[in-house]
Write a structure and sequence with these properties.
- With 51 residues, this protein is mainly alpha-helical.
- The chain is 49% helix and 0% strand.
- It contains 1 helix and no strands.
- It is elongated, with a radius of gyration of 26 Å.
Length: 51
């Protein structure tokens, strides 16, 4: 019966945009990725072997 009634709602606040990473965070992430790579290579050659 009340299908044509306009319901007023409070608008949803817009999401806050993500802040980009600072240079220190990028450097730390890069160093962590390099260390993880070398650990993975070491683990591969330790458990699987070269042959």
């Amino acid at each position: 019966m009340n299908d044509n009634v306009v319901k007023f709602r409070k608008p949803v606040p817009p999401k806050k945009p993500r802040e980009p990473m600072g240079p220190k965070a990028k450097k730390a992430l890069t160093i962590a990725a390099v260390i993880a790579f070398f650990v993975a290579v070491w683990g591969y050659f330790t458990f699987v072997g070269q042959g």
